[in-house]
UniProtKB/TrEMBL annotation:
<protein>
    <submittedName>
        <fullName>Uncharacterized protein</fullName>
    </submittedName>
</protein>
<keyword id="KW-0472">Membrane</keyword>
<feature type="region of interest" description="Disordered">
    <location>
        <begin position="531"/>
        <end position="559"/>
    </location>
</feature>
<feature type="transmembrane region" description="Helical">
    <location>
        <begin position="473"/>
        <end position="498"/>
    </location>
</feature>
<feature type="transmembrane region" description="Helical">
    <location>
        <begin position="30"/>
        <end position="51"/>
    </location>
</feature>
<feature type="compositionally biased region" description="Polar residues">
    <location>
        <begin position="548"/>
        <end position="559"/>
    </location>
</feature>
<dbReference type="InterPro" id="IPR053018">
    <property type="entry name" value="Elsinochrome_Biosynth-Asso"/>
</dbReference>
<feature type="transmembrane region" description="Helical">
    <location>
        <begin position="152"/>
        <end position="173"/>
    </location>
</feature>
<feature type="transmembrane region" description="Helical">
    <location>
        <begin position="271"/>
        <end position="291"/>
    </location>
</feature>
<feature type="transmembrane region" description="Helical">
    <location>
        <begin position="438"/>
        <end position="461"/>
    </location>
</feature>
<feature type="transmembrane region" description="Helical">
    <location>
        <begin position="121"/>
        <end position="140"/>
    </location>
</feature>
<keyword id="KW-1133">Transmembrane helix</keyword>
<keyword id="KW-0812">Transmembrane</keyword>
<feature type="transmembrane region" description="Helical">
    <location>
        <begin position="215"/>
        <end position="233"/>
    </location>
</feature>
<feature type="transmembrane region" description="Helical">
    <location>
        <begin position="297"/>
        <end position="320"/>
    </location>
</feature>
Length: 559
């Protein structure tokens, strides 16, 4: 088929053309094989998360404290190994099939033989494969870190798929992409604008402007790849922590400490309200950073990518499927083969579960060998007990006491490693204090619900607009985010005086003077520290954590 000229493209876009079926792209077996494989991969990753088959280094306090997810600690090792094998096999399928179908789509794009409808299916089948593979990559991070060769070739495959998807989004930039302009009342009219050759939209917008949603798609695509691939490298994680997370946290803590100190010195309530105002900014930012570093973020990326891709495939097929008739609904060899190939991962799983091979067994560490630099887990010895004094004092006093204690302890340390260890310990204490606040927990849960609500609204609007008009999802997302921020701020404003985070430090101690000098509080801290030291001497886990902290990965957010 010859490439159409610009005039021919305009005529087809305006009046439509007869859509020819292509079962190799949009046949029922091909589409089902992609969708089933993607959803099975997501279900396996989600099941591993829910049933405690994810290594502790992949979880943070959002996972362990809010959702009460238990990390994998060696129970049922063969099930754990079977899940790993299954995810490896399924993720490999996602890479290979995604690259294969994008290659077929580009061949049709080059020759001008693939329609807008079929290229839409090609593009979003590969999009689904990419989204699910990123979540699988997160689950496999500990394994890939120990197997450089396995990681390297998968990263090469991911890079190829990223480039193909990036180029594949180019035709969707046009505001005329996927819009039905052939509004014909006759039921038997076979023409549709979906039959427009996809090459007609290659670098052409026909004066109707650029679709901002395509730009948003590029941002999401590149951002998710940089985020999840960078998470595989310790240096990349350290770069993020030291260049963004830690400076933001230090600036926020400095502001909070300044307001708390000024209120302690002057007892003027304007400084207390400044402290609360800073918390209104500090809490949502900290909540977002904690969610972004949690395993739930990977589940959101995969789940939303799956739903979005499913809508972009299913709705156009419903709209124009009747026009291609039996050519894309019949079952033959080309439709059964990809479905039968879905059985292949079952062999890898059964091999691990049923065949007891010592060479494939995983190393199960003793309880004293577990090291959680990023969070504490339920049932594990904590940095301090929640019923002890430091957790009961208001946040304004706590942050001043912590700063004073950190300054004193840092003065006694020499060497970069010792300073980093002390910083890490204080950051962990601050995080643990914040996580015990019902207001911060409410922020985490509200943010998760906000993501679900925003996604549901955008998807519902997008589903109604496919084939009719461009939904401008970026605008819907922007409005939804603004609404979320406003509601979040209002909730914090009304609730913060009643939370320990923003309570008046002098509410129950109006006659107490000079608490900013940390006199009585430091006595409480020393008393607590002695009890904690007594516990630490009897806790091999805490002793091992202290000994290994220098080589561990820095924790999340606060420092």
């Amino acid at each position: 088929m010859a490439k159409p000229s610009e005039d021919q493209c305009l005529d087809i876009i305006s009046h439509g053309a007869v859509l020819q079926g292509d079962s190799d792209i949009s046949g029922p077996g091909v589409i089902l094989a992609f969708i089933i494989s993607a959803y099975i991969t997501f279900a396996v990753v989600l099941g591993a998360y829910v049933f405690g088959m994810v290594e502790g280094e992949m979880l943070n306090m959002v996972d362990t404290h809010i959702f009460r997810v238990r990390p994998f600690k060696g129970k049922h090792p063969h099930i754990h190994a079977g899940i790993r094998k299954a995810v490896l096999s399924l993720s490999d399928q996602q890479i290979v099939t995604g690259i294969a179908i994008m290659g077929a789509g580009f061949q049709g794009l080059r020759t001008g033989s693939i329609s807008t409808y079929h290229f839409q299916i090609v593009l979003y089948l590969a999009w689904m494969s990419s989204s699910v593979h990123l979540s699988a990559l997160t689950l496999l991070r500990p394994f890939l870190m120990d197997h450089k060769g396995v990681k390297t070739w998968r990263l090469v495959g991911m890079l190829v798929l990223l480039v193909l998807l990036f180029i594949g989004l180019v035709p969707t930039v046009s505001n005329d992409w996927g819009i039905e302009y052939n509004a014909v009342d006759a039921v038997d009219d076979p023409r549709t604008s979906w039959a427009t050759p996809a090459i007609c939209f290659w670098t052409r917008t026909y004066g109707d402007g650029v679709n901002a949603d395509a730009i948003l798609g590029w941002v999401i695509l590149i951002g998710s790849y940089v985020w999840k691939v960078g998470d595989l490298y310790k240096k990349a994680r350290l770069f993020y922590l030291r260049s963004f997370a830690e400076p933001v946290d230090r600036a926020a803590q400095a502001g909070l400490r300044f307001a708390a100190q000024r209120y302690a010195d002057t007892r003027q309530h304007r400084w207390l309200w400044l402290f609360r105002a800073l918390l209104i900014v500090f809490l949502p930012i900290t909540a977002l950073m904690e969610i972004a570093s949690s395993f739930t973020a990977s589940l959101w990326v995969a789940g939303l990518g799956l739903i979005f891709g499913t809508f972009q495939i299913a709705i156009p097929r419903i709209l124009v499927g009747y026009l291609v008739g039996s050519s894309e609904s019949s079952w033959g060899f080309g439709q059964l083969t990809p479905l039968i190939l879905l059985i292949q991962p079952l062999g890898a799983v059964s091999e691990v579960i049923w065949v007891r091979d010592r060479s494939d067994s995983i190393v199960v560490l003793d309880e004293t060998d577990w090291n959680w630099p990023n969070s504490t887990t339920p049932g594990e010895p904590r940095a301090h007990d929640p019923d002890e004094e430091p957790d009961k004092i208001p946040f304004a006093r706590f942050i001043l006491s912590l700063f004073q204690r950190r300054r004193d302890e840092l003065a006694g340390h020499s060497g970069k490693d010792a300073l980093l260890q002390a910083r890490e310990e204080h950051a962990q204490e601050l995080l643990e204090y914040i996580y015990k606040s019902w207001l911060f927990k409410a922020h985490i849960i509200f943010t998760q619900l906000g993501i679900a609500a925003i996604a549901a609204a955008v998807f519902a609007f997008d589903a109604k607009s496919i084939g009719s008009f461009k939904p401008q999802s970026w605008y819907s997302v922007g409005i939804s985010l603004a609404g979320y921020l406003c509601v979040s701020i209002l909730i914090t404003v009304f609730c913060i005086p009643f939370s320990r985070l923003g309570s008046n430090p002098n509410r129950n101690d109006e006659n107490h003077r000079g608490w900013s000098k940390v006199g009585i509080e430091m006595k409480n801290w020393r008393s607590w520290k002695r009890r904690d030291d007594d516990h630490e001497t009897t806790s091999p886990l805490r002793k091992h954590r202290s000994d290994t902290m220098q080589t561990s990965r820095p924790g999340t957010a606060l420092s």
